[in-house]
Each structure stands twice: as structure tokens, then as C-alpha cells.
Hints:
70% of the residues lie in helices and 0% in strands. The chain has ten helices and no strands. The protein has helices at 2-13, 32-43, 52-55, 59-83, 88-122, 137-148, 157-188, 195-230, 239-250, 259-284.
Amino acid sequence: xxPFSLVKTRLQMQKNHIPGGGELDKIRYRGTxxxxxxxxxxxxxxxxxxxxxxxxxxxxxxxxxITTYELGRMRFKELxxxxxxxxxxxxxxxxxxxxxxxxxxxxxxxxxPVDVVSQKQMVHTGLRKGEQQMRGLAAIGRQILAxxxxxxxxxxxGASLSVYAPSSAIWWGSYGYFRExxxxxxxxxxxxxxNASGRLVEATAGASAGIVATVVTNPMDVARxxxxxxxxAKNRTNLRSTLRYLWVHEGPLSLMxxxxxxxMATVPSSVLIITVYELVKRLSRKTPPKDESQ
Length: 294
């Protein structure tokens, strides 16, 4: 799925006011498919995997994320049972969303530095006039450290939290909602719930949740990418000012740049993640749960 992430980043970094023509047409993309075609043609298949090496470090954040998520769900359930805030059915999507937001908050301590470095490699085309040769992980790390210190690795940290914490909360909250809604529709249709239908419901709910979370948070993701790659300009010092700049200078549609490759990457990854997650949960239980929301 890395190629989708690279194309998404290229599209989000593309400025509308820069004209095409000549050599610039090689790095001027009209959309997702055009970006895939031009990158493959002018940079080779390897061009679609720029930044892949450093992005694999982000795997470490997955363990932190899922551990925090499960602990959060457990704690929020205990709090609800203690203070009787909501009914169990009402609380399930709420605790999913809250735990997802907390998990994202913790995992971003690893994800942001990885993103800062990998995105600098992703946007390097080698086709711009005067563009330096792409450097390795160590060289980019030394440059960031020399120019901005340790804080440079956390450039756009606030913007990342503004993207991933809500995205995670929306994803898990939506997943719980869609799963219960699909099971309810299944019951209304008079169909008996089976293992196969349960897995299909989980996959469909996961994919749907991924689409919702992606579309809702895409404007903030565009602004985050600009902050982390371009740095802080005079008129773009934070997420809010960057969003305003994009709206005024590049138009409202600029806030949806890269949404198509994000969805194309999110849907299969959401299905895979939730399928494995639910499978591991089922295999880890000593006794069957009273309901699947536990």
C-alpha cells in the first residue's frame, strides 16, 4: 500500500498556481492514475517506493497503538459501569471512539518523526531543475537535526494529532456503529448469523469506517503534509493558517487533494486490520463472549 501513500503525498504537495509545460509536465499530476503513470514512467517502479525503508519503522507504533486501544476500551467500560453514564449498547461505539483517539495520541510519538523523514523522500522526484540527489535516512536525519534540532522531527506534531486522533476516533466509532447496524439489518431480514456472515459484516463495517474517516479528515491531512514537508512559512505557521492559505490561494477543492489514493489504501488496509484484529481476539478468549462487541 506504500505506493498509494506516496501518490497521496505528491498530490497533496502539488501547488495549483504552478503552471505546467515542458519538463514540469513530468511532475504535474492530473489525478491519481496520472500520478501512478508518470512516476512509473519517469522514475521507475522503484520511484513508487521512495521512503518505504524508513516508513517500516512505523510498525513499532502498531503495538503501542493496539495496546493503548484495548486498555482504553477496558477502562472506559469500567468507568461506565461505575457511573452508569450510558447503556452498554450506547457505550460500545463511544468507548471505541475514545479509546481510538487515545491510542492515536500515544502512537504519534513514533509516527510523526517517521513521517517527517519518509515524506521528504517521497516528494523527491529527481526531475526538477537544480534538485539535489535523493539522500538516505541518515543524511536526512542529520540535516533535520542540524537545522531544527530534535524539534524538527516533530514538525507538524499538533497537525498530526489533529488528523490521526480524530481519524482513529471516527474509524473505531464508525466501525462499531456500522457493525451493529449491519447485524440489525441481518436480523430484520430474518437471516441466521453465521461465522461467514459475521466476518463479512466485520469487513464491510471496517471498509465503511475507513471511507468515512478518510473523507472527514482529508483537509487536515493535506495541511499536515504541507507543514511537515514545506516547513513553517510566514503565512502558514500552524494547521489553521495552512488551511486558510489552501482555501484562499488554491481553492476549496485543494483540501480534498489525495483523497482518492487515501481511500484506495484505506479500504483494503481497514479490511485486513479489522479481520486480523477480530480473529486474534477470538483466538485469545478462553470463553466465548456474551456479545461480539466485547
